[in-house]
Amino acid sequence: MTAQVANPLLYSADLDKLLTDFSSETNTNKTLTPELSLILEQLAGTGLLCYQWAHIKVLLAHRMNSVFAGFPSTPESESLQKGIFQSLEEFTSAPFTIQRIAELLLRPNLYKSPQKYLFALQKVLLVSSVQNILAPEDYNAQVADQQNKFAQASKGSDVQSMDVSQPDEKSDSKPVEAAPAATSESSSDVKVEDMETEPAK
To answer: How many CB atoms neighbour CB 139 within 10 A?
Structure first.
């Protein structure tokens, strides 16, 4: 089953069905498909929840397993991982840090050290505040509002940039030429096993 989503951040009944099937106890061959990854992208992009927490928790745990499998096995890392799984399991509702959790699970290379990554994930799970699940229509309305505000802010920023770039017609001074943009080599994907430095700012 392939879910067709016009706006990838909006609630999708197809995605909901895929998530329900994925999290079922009878599903012993769980695979994180691109469609299911889209649910993680929704969480990371909005910080809002519209799917059943029990189902989301299974998805998060599965993704954690996949990420952790790429880390070197040490007593300390195994202890941290065990604590992370335990913290996740104890939540009966979604933690208010769900957005950051999803970001970390989607992009483990944000941290160049497995230990620092595990500490970061542990930290966002050591919270007590939770958030409610939104009804699909309420979720979609809030997402649309977020997107409208972002679009307006971006438009305002573009207008301000255009105003600044226009030379004053009454001024005798010539517009200052922009300095050439600095170039940098594009970095390749960092392998989790090679993590060594501080997290990117």
So the answer is: 20
Q: Are 100 and 72 in contact, with CB atoms under 8 Å apart? A: no
pLDDT at 104 over 90: yes
Both structure tokens of 135: 């009804």
Quick: pLDDT tens for 118-160.
999 999 999 999 999 999 999 999 999 999 998 888 887 665 5
**CB-based contacts of 196, cutoff 8 Å, min separation 6:** 112, 113
Q: Which of 101, 72, 85 is nearest to 196 (CA)?
A: 72
Q: Is 47 left (phi over 0), alpha (psi -120 to 50) or beta?
A: left
Judge whether 190 and 114 are in contact, CB under 8 Å: no
User: Would you call 117 exposed, middle or buried from its count of C-beta atoms within 10 A (0-12, 13-18, 19+)?
Assistant: buried
